[in-house]
Amino acid sequence: MRLLTPTPSRQAGATLVAILIGLVVGLIVLTGGIVFFVNNVSANRQLLAASRLDLELMSAVDAMAREIRRAQYIARADTVRHQVPCADVFCDGAEDFSLADGDAAAGYAQIEFSYDRRDTGAGNAQTQNADECTGFRLRNSAVEMKTNCSTDGGWLPLTDPATTVVTQINFGVDCTVASDFYTRTVLMRVNGHLGGDTTLTRALTEAVVVRAPLAASSPPAYCRLPTP
Asked: Which of 26, 29, 36, 83 would suit a FRET pair with 201, their CA atoms being 20 to 30 Å apart?
């Protein structure tokens, strides 16, 4: 009887070349994932920075718009503000409504005005108090707000240059006339960029109608009149 000698079987496995190819493919996939993750984080950071810049500038524009709407307000205007030109205590000085640092055509960089915050009765309705003057201007890359009627104005910053750098403020005033009363629309433009990043910029504009019409026989120098 012939005995058969068992033949050892060969075990199949990955070759070195196949292992190297797998490593290369894995590195390519991993690199792509890392690049995608980094780009996604960078895009989110840019989006958050843009949102913060928009919020800062919009807050400043909204604050200015609220104040400008009530410029030269006076209680019982229907019985008080009827003279031409306007002669009440909120129309008798440069602080009552004036613009500076510019011209009517190109616009101005500073606006100041006054208003009556309270109505304390017929005898005091036209009293202008020391805290009833305000205004806005650009100083040291920040929007500043006037807080009182004193000589220095008590200007305080509305924006923080560390987070938002304001590069330009512009006020233009369009006037329309009806029966010796001028309706004024203040066109505001604010330009700025994120603090520390000059590549991310924004420009916001808003039109604000001054609710109190101005009694005047001729348009103020700051007015831009409609083209005939």
From this structure: 36
39 is a domain residue? no
pTM of the entire structure? 0.78
Q: Does residue 19 lie within any of the structural domains?
A: no
Residues 88/80, Cβ–Cβ less than 8 Å: yes
- Number of domains present in the structure of the chain: 1
Mean pLDDT across 128-143: 93
Q: Is residue 32 part of a domain?
A: no
pLDDT digits (tens, 9 = 90+) for 36-91: 767 766 666 677 778 888 999 999 999 999 999 999 988 877 777 778 888 888 88
